[in-house]
RNA sequence: GGCGGGUUGGCGGAGAGGUUACGCAGCGGAUUGCAAAUCCGUGAAGACCGGUUCGAUUCCGGUACCCGCCUCCA
């Protein structure tokens, strides 16, 4: 069996991956808060962990891997966005607006991530559907002395968990020292974080022994991973920005609620994304959603290829130049594998690269080697492990067919050009050549004669003008 | 201030203590009436300063610069 090595953020080193149960490999990745379109930074963990999911399925069998990614659909930002909509004239009750907003956003998320070639996780729990489990977990934590209720809030007693700070490498005292920590009056300690908070009448809320309220962000992932994957599972992933406080808090909650479970065995964090060398931000004007890039004409497969060109643990830069190169490479490869039956399994070199801490850039180099060696069947099978060159994603690279009239005209003009060349009327021949290019007809001269295909900007009127 | 990541050839970007990364661009050649496409070949690197070593871009330390987190922004 393939040996997979992964960098475990918690251990701060690369480790051999040994699933708790090889017949039931379990992975949890933090999903989006659904109040707006996913931006291109949100897409990075989706693509990274999609490749890991594919690799795990390849190594352990598709039926032996469970991938869970949540939707956070109860959150202050969602409430704020819904309030904006109401202020802008939406007459529905706030809860109805919120439901419509989160439903629509989830639909967008699915469409956008599908376009990037990401497989849907096995389970995509919505936080609002697991409130009961969250309340039960909070009650359990209170019962064990790790949490306390005060003024309608429930807070986690950070000092009660001695391992707090281990994942992110911080001590509680350091954190307090440097810190702009909100010291709410109901907190015993400044570091304590919210498990449950009160909700106003018009905002979404659930009844509990602490009054009507809603869960804090961190408890969602602890409760849902417990319900769907158990008290211990193999991999927990997410962006490095979530390492603290979100993942640290998840660990504290889960380890205190289920001391024997161990929670996630391996923690993986992807580094962040920049745009043209700068942090993506609305003020710099370099803020893009995935949908923006798709609408600009960047095919999802091209976006995916750009992301896979940089190792997940390194900062990645999105640039137009990279997109251009990725598109050219994929177009070339798609030409090579068109109509080819993929090999029964991916090339060992590609598997080896991915098994070495998800070295996607190395895997792409191996794909180049396969393409160079003419192993198109191997290329196709291996690219599939990266979610590339899939039949269903290739629409963008397909050459547009010409209708019969246009095809006949192109053939006629090509014949005219051949005659002009034969007659050494190079002015006429070159005029036709330039005309084809301007009309969006790509002509390739081969020893067997001229071949042609249509570019995306094919213009029949310009072609007609060449007569 | 605390914690963490990064710095590789013109550009992007990997691995490995000693032997070609790879891709794009460039250059040379084949092919072509000239091109395009294609094919063949090729130069070019390791932020800076020390240390360990027979030998370091690869290990260790320091410096500079960049980035992230410490604020429920992936």
TrEMBL record:
Quaternary organization: Monomer.
Keyword 4Fe-4S: no
Domain Cysteinyl-tRNA synthetase class Ia DALR positions: 349-397
Principal subcellular localization: cytoplasm
UniProt keyword annotation of Cytoplasm present: yes
Localisation: Cytoplasm
GO molecular function: cysteine-tRNA ligase activity
Binding, Zn(2+): 30, 221, 246, 250
Binding note for cofactor: Binds 1 zinc ion per subunit.
Name of this protein: Cysteine--tRNA ligase
Coiled coil: none
EC code: 6.1.1.16
Binding site for ATP: 282
Keywords, alphabetical: Aminoacyl-tRNA synthetase, ATP-binding, Cytoplasm, Ligase, Metal-binding, Nucleotide-binding, Protein biosynthesis, Zinc
Top EC class for this record: ligase
Catalysed transformations (reactions): tRNA(Cys) + L-cysteine + ATP = L-cysteinyl-tRNA(Cys) + AMP + diphosphate
Position of sequence motif 'KMSKS' region: 279-283
Family, similarity comment: Belongs to the class-I aminoacyl-tRNA synthetase family.
HAMAP family documented for this protein: Cys_tRNA_synth (MF_00041)
Motif mapping: 'HIGH' region: 32-42
Cofactor section: Zn(2+)
Originating organism: Defluviimonas salinarum
Domain of life of the organism encoding this protein: Bacteria
């Amino acid at each position: 069996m393939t040996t997979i090595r992964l960098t475990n953020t918690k251990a701060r080193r690369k480790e051999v991956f040994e699933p708790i149960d090889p017949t039931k490999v379990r992975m949890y990745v933090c999903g989006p808060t659904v109040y707006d379109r996913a931006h291109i930074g949100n897409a990075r963990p989706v693509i990274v962990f999609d490749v890991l999911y594919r690799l795990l399925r390849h190594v352990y069998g598709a039926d032996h891997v469970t991938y869970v990614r949540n939707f956070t659909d109860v959150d202050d930002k969602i409430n704020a966005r819904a309030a904006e909509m109401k202020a802008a004239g939406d007459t529905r009750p706030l809860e109805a607006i919120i439901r419509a907003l989160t439903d629509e956003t989830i639909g967008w998320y699915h469409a956008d991530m599908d376009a990037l070639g990401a497989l849907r996780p096995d389970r995509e729990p919505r936080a609002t559907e697991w409130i009961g489990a969250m309340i039960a977990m909070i009650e359990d934590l209170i019962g064990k002395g790790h949490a306390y209720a005060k003024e309608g809030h429930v807070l986690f007693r950070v000092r009660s968990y001695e391992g707090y700070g281990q994942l992110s490498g911080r001590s509680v005292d350091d954190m307090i020292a440097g810190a702009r920590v909100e010291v709410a009056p109901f907190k015993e300690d400044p570091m304590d974080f919210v498990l449950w908070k009160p909700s106003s009448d018009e905002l979404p809320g659930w009844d509990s022994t602490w009054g009507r309220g809603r869960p804090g962000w961190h408890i969602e992932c602890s409760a849902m991973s417990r319900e769907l994957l158990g008290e211990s599972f193999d991999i927990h992933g997410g962006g490095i920005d979530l390492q603290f406080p979100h993942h640290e808090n998840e660990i504290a909650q889960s380890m205190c609620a289920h001391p024997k479970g161990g929670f996630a065995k391996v923690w993986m964090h992807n580094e962040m994304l920049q745009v043209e060398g700068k942090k993506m931000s609305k003020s710099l004007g370099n803020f893009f959603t995935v949908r923006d890039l798709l609408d600009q004409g960047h095919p999802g497969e091209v976006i995916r290829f750009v992301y896979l060109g940089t190792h997940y643990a390194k900062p990645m830069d999105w640039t137009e130049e990279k997109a251009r190169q990725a598109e050219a490479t994929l177009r070339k490869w798609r030409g090579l594998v068109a109509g080819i039956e993929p090999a029964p399994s991916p090339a060992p070199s590609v598997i080896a690269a991915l098994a070495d801490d998800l070295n996607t850039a190395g895997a792409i180099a191996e794909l180049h080697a396969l393409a160079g060696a003419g192993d198109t069947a191997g290329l196709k099978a291996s690219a599939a492990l990266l979610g590339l060159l899939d039949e269903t994603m290739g629409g963008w690279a397909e050459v547009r067919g010409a209708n019969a009239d246009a095809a006949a005209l192109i053939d006629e003009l090509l014949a005219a050009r051949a005659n002009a060349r034969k007659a050494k009327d190079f002015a006429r021949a070159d005029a036709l050549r330039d005309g084809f290019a301007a009309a969006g007809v790509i002509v390739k001269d081969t020893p067997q004669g001229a071949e042609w295909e249509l570019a995306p900007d094919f213009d029949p009127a310009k072609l007609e003008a060449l007569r």
